[in-house]
Amino acid sequence: MAESGSPGGETLLFLTDEQLRKGIEAMFFAYRAFTADPDRLLEEHGYGRAHHRALHFINRQPGLTVTTLLAVLGVTKQSLNRVLRTLIEDGLVESRVGKRDKRERRLHLTEEGEALERALSEAQRGRMRAAYRAAGPQAVAGFRQVLEAMMGPDLHKLYQMMKDE
Amino acid sequence: MAESGSPGGETLLFLTDEQLRKGIEAMFFAYRAFTADPDRLLEEHGYGRAHHRALHFINRQPGLTVTTLLAVLGVTKQSLNRVLRTLIEDGLVESRVGKRDKRERRLHLTEEGEALERALSEAQRGRMRAAYRAAGPQAVAGFRQVLEAMMGPDLHKLYQMMKDE
DNA sequence: TTGGAAAGTCAACAAGGCTGACATAAAGTC
DNA sequence: GACTTTATGTCAGCCTTGTTGACTTTCCAA
């Protein structure tokens, strides 16, 4: 019941606690749907969500280093390594020694890795595309604005690191 | 590279695979930020995200049954029970035998439960409020539209079950 | 040459999903 | 009244994915 009134001349009803709670629930349910499609596919291949995330970002930034991927994913080295190791063993990801700095490992998807990434992304984009189409370009712009504002400056920096087109 | 052209007379650039991928990443980063604040608070109390979700929905629908909560959360009985048991033992949730149907357990928050829920929600709403304010009412409307379209009919039904104001 | 950064590994632990199998009480049905 | 179904709870065990802490190897850079 914080800001229910009309302090200035503007209507701030969209900042009501109730509206905020509905927004929170919308995030909860939407995120569940958002991960459901790739999850099904992953299970068939014996992988989990963590594998998907690694594949996604390696695909987006071919040649990124392990340290960068760690920062992007926001997990510990040990946690990522477990996932990365199986992907490399299974021949989905290739780890190449850095040219200038030989300590670095540059990560790339193999053809097989690209194929799985594409399938996972397809599933996820399918739902996204349907939602975008249903809501329209104006709504999509608002959607992106709110999400970007919500992620805060640090994550927004990582977000912008990913190539835009 | 599916729909890059201009099939009709309309610009469908917002349905580009690249735009969809950015949307996917926005969801990923935003959801991470979205859960970060309550997670900190939860850790101080020795609880996890699962406890937060239970508290949230019991608060929203006081007196809901276990079966309903199961449907809303989308987890198994065993998984929910582990969480619910500790909340009841710790005196945050009260389980009352149903009046008409005595098999049912009606779930309610105690005062202590309400206090924690309020604190968690406050943390989460703080970020949400800032994002909403920064993006403006128009963007918020679009945000909600896209999320609702994304969750699909089944989850949308559960979403609408929650009281709106 | 020496300190620090990048990567990898081992071990142990915790949260929170899951399945399967059962048990009980209460409702509902025939 | 006997039988079936529903709502709930519980035990046991497994998996993924996160964590901390300790330690190693390799390599860059001052």
TrEMBL record, chains A, B:
<keyword id="KW-0804">Transcription</keyword>
<protein>
    <submittedName>
        <fullName>MarR family transcriptional regulator</fullName>
    </submittedName>
</protein>
<dbReference type="InterPro" id="IPR023187">
    <property type="entry name" value="Tscrpt_reg_MarR-type_CS"/>
</dbReference>
<dbReference type="InterPro" id="IPR036388">
    <property type="entry name" value="WH-like_DNA-bd_sf"/>
</dbReference>
<feature type="domain" description="HTH marR-type">
    <location>
        <begin position="17"/>
        <end position="152"/>
    </location>
</feature>
<dbReference type="InterPro" id="IPR039422">
    <property type="entry name" value="MarR/SlyA-like"/>
</dbReference>
<dbReference type="Pfam" id="PF12802">
    <property type="entry name" value="MarR_2"/>
</dbReference>
<keyword id="KW-0238">DNA-binding</keyword>
<dbReference type="InterPro" id="IPR000835">
    <property type="entry name" value="HTH_MarR-typ"/>
</dbReference>
<keyword id="KW-0805">Transcription regulation</keyword>
<dbReference type="InterPro" id="IPR036390">
    <property type="entry name" value="WH_DNA-bd_sf"/>
</dbReference>
